[in-house]
Design goal:
single chain; 333 residues; mainly alpha; DNA polymerase, domain 1; 2 domains; elongated; DNA-binding; DNA recombination
């Protein structure tokens, strides 16, 4: 009878990644899973007795003792956040193997996991910087090639007034925006497969409507069907990661605020600005966590339940909305 403990780690890693692919992770996330699994597995093979090439390492050899030694070597020159991410990946890998009855138990609880400090928020610097950014994006300057201010402002507003991540912006569809007037909402495909619904206040709603009208004028009504991507490039194709990053960077340059954008948080600085302003203007932690869709939200909901009305009020106090009022009126005129 075939002993499942004789399966090679390499083969089982591929099976695990195949199972994860059905959840539709981003290519970046899938590559991170593979990198963390292979990096630690290589170290485990080197530390085995006797040392082995990775291709000969059997899953039955991965004892708690060997995994502790491999993670100790892995952690030597890496940040706590990187070690913690790899630990989570391996914990998921062994949980998969237990469910598949390949191994009897998960050794990862016996492997120390570092506590990574929470990263400090990195909002845009300067009291009126978001307003300057929106105002600059709303201007169709002559030196721009094929300017589209309605689209540019819509992208910035979704990040500044809804706190969306890059991946969430790209996943939006025209049909993601729904609800009756005065109760409009945005359905967001959140990180880790956690959907959330965000309130959309009238000014933001009007701005998005203006953007979609401009898109109809450019490309025709067929491009704004419910399943169509909400954000598109100047050719009417779905906006991609690089294109979105370039768009935001160009808006920073046009506004002359490049020196107020924290390093390492170019587009994410808009999301951080959203959260920071909510806190400054009186929103509570529970509302902020709901609106941002943080991973810790699930545990927070056990203790604090926030009604949809409170969420809408939390979004409404965000003073960046005030900058939209003038833009909506100017576009309407």
């Amino acid at each position: 009878m075939h002993d499942k403990r004789d399966e090679t780690v390499q083969v089982l890693i591929e099976e695990f990644l195949t199972s994860r692919a059905t959840r539709k992770p981003s290519p970046h996330t899938q590559a991170a899973y593979r990198r963390d699994l292979v990096s630690v597995a290589v170290l485990a093979a080197e530390l085995a007795t006797p040392p082995l090439p990775l291709g000969d390492l059997r899953i039955g050899a991965l004892s708690p003792r060997l995994m502790r030694a491999a993670f100790a070597r892995f952690a030597a020159d890496r940040a706590a956040a990187s070690v913690g991410r790899a630990w989570s990946t391996w914990n998921g890998f062994f949980s998969f193997l237990v469910a598949e009855q390949v191994v009897a138990g998960n050794p990862m609880p016996a492997v120390g996991r570092p506590r990574a400090p929470l990263p400090a928020p990195k909002p845009l610097r300067g009291e009126d910087t978001p307003e300057q950014l929106l105002a600059a994006a709303a201007q169709a300057r002559g030196r721009q090639r094929d300017p589209w201010p309605e689209r540019d402002v819509a992208v910035l507003a979704l990040a500044l007034c809804a706190g969306l991540r890059l991946s969430e912006l790209l996943a939006l569809r025209v049909g993601s925006l729904g609800g009756r007037p005065g109760e409009r909402r945005l359905e967001v495909a959140g990180k880790g497969g956690r959907p959330r619904v965000l309130p959309v206040e009238p000014d933001l709603d009007a701005l998005l409507a203006g953007y979609l009208d401009s898109r109809v004028r450019r490309f025709g009504s067929r491009t704004v069907r419910p399943a169509s991507p909400l954000l598109v490039d100047r050719q009417g194709e779905a906006l991609r990661r690089g294109g979105l990053q370039y768009l935001v960077e160009s808006c920073y340059r046009r506004a002359g605020i490049g020196d107020r954008v924290p390093r390492g948080a170019r587009l994410h600085a808009l999301r951080h600005t959203f959260a920071t302003r909510l806190a400054e203007d009186g929103a509570g932690a529970a509302e902020i966590m709901r609106l941002l869709g943080h991973a810790s939200l699930a545990s927070s909901q056990t203790y604090i339940e926030v009604t949809s009305g409170q969420q809408r009020e939390a979004a409404r106090v965000n003073r960046t909305y005030r900058a939209l009022v003038g833009l909506v009126r100017s576009q309407a005129g």
